[in-house]
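Thought: the user asked what Winged helix-turn-helix transcriptional regulator looks like in 3D. I have the sequence; next I should run the structure tool and report back without guessing.
Action: structure_tool
Action Input:
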Amino acid sequence: MESNDAIAVFSALSQPTRLAVFRLLMEHEPAGLPAGDIAGAMAVPQNTMSSHLAILSRAGLIAAERNGRSILYRAELDRVREIASFLVQDCCGGKPALCEPLVAELTPCCRPTD
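Observation:
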C-alpha cells in the first residue's frame, strides 16, 4: 500500500459516522447490509448516508452490490489487511518477538464463536 492510499483510508475513517458504519459492516461480514439498514442503524438520513458510503467506497474500505432494488454494502477485508500490514510493515526492527503482543491482540477477533 502506498502512503497516499493509507492517507485516504485514514481520512475516510476520521469522521465518527463513517468509522461507525465501517465497524458495523465489519460486524456483518460476510453478509453485508443494505444501505437503508445502515442509515437506520446510524439514525442518519439516507442522502447523508449516501455521501458517507461514497467516501468509504472511494477509499476502498467498502464495496457495493446491487441486490434487486437495494444496494448491499460489505467491508473490503483485503483493504483492512492492507492497511494493517502497512502500519506494521517495519515493526520491531527485525525482532519478531516484539510483535507477538500485537499478533495476539488481533487473533481473538477472528476466532469462530460458538
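Thought: the tool returned a structure. Summarizing for the user.
Final Answer: Structure for Winged helix-turn-helix transcriptional regulator predicted. The two ends are 35 Å apart (CA to CA). Residues 46-58 form the longest helix (13 residues).
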